[in-house]
Amino acid sequence: MGHQLSVEDFEIAIICALKVESDAVVAAFDELLEGSDAVPPLAKDRLDANAYTIGVMGDHHVVLAHMPNYGISSSAIVATDLRRTFPNIKVAFVVGVCGGVPKIKEDDIMLGDVIISTRVIQYGLGREFTHEFRPIDTTGREPCPELRSYLNKMQGEQELSHLEERTLEYLNAPRKSDWQPKCKHPGMENDKLFAPTHRHKHHQKGLCETCDKCLDDENPPCKESETLDCTILGCHEVVMRQRKPPSTQLDEAGAVGSIPRSLRPHVYFGAFGSADKVMKSSTERDRLVKELGIVALEMEGGGAWGTVPCVIIKGVCDYSDSHKNKVWQPYAAATAACCCKAFLVPWWKSVTKNRVQATGNTDPQTREFIQNLFALDPPSARSQIELDNGDLLPGTGSWLFAPPLCTSEETEANPQDLQSPYLMFNKWWTDDQA
To answer: How far apart are CA 100 and CA 272, in angstroms?
Structure first.
């Protein structure tokens, strides 16, 4: 009889705020377990208010958590409830769309490119003075040591090239069902970056008295212009840019599927700015880039980040300016979902069960005892404690590792009977390479 899937088998979670984001993630699943006859319904914790979709990506069972609303506080609550039902989650990916910055180092960022977080900065958290706002979080928070190591690995030239190749491969994979969204590139002619001072308003004189007076950031344009397309408004000061040149010979092979390699999304790593507001100001965007060094802006990562080990993977759907629209959201959500799937390919599954099985010469009671100890990952727990509170004090938890002592002359139990599991747990807790 095969192993029956349970909530303890899920180590990977994905959190999405928008329907367009969750649809893209579900489309990237290799297998959808929701409603499958082979998988019985999983029981939620009674305090868990989340809605889930479960599936398979590569070798991993993945649970997708659907947020009820966007925003930092909502994502924090969703991440908290997630761990109530799925206790073995090792990493949560916040996947979806974001606002990008025009450049990362020397590269021009294009719509549809993907940003992966190395840290997150809550730029809306701070102190408001009469003359200025001072953010408290100016350097950001880094992920746990395990994720930092993995992120460093994935930024290597070879791994990054493979990551982009796999992302394009998954983007061009044929749809498995009619309901899945079509992954269509909107076209480079619809990817326009306007000069920072070029406002989204009526630019032809005489059409709108309000917009005629809108000469700088102090004068707002008319409300009607917020709903109109740039073509209708006459927005014209476009910044000329060039796509990142091919990084490998494979890039020159031409088209693969519906998206040519010349248009394949590039993947970048950097700091996310997270806040409870939609950024539609090029002036504020450029200020945050200069002062905080962020490369993308979004609204959910900051909440989940402090609750569960977290990586933000989002596709650029706009440039965080007044010309922002939703044309690129479906494609950007798809590139992010496919990149998340590609990012998981080298991710090693937990070897907890293998370690327990390796102690085959122990009796069933000892193996069960060890399995219960491994319900949580001690090295990860220790790393998170050290990250939050500093190094552990000498002797922390040592009382757990000492084998039981016989205090009564009438007790015939041998202390060596339980010494092996205690020693194994002690080694796993203290071994950095475990």
So the answer is: 9
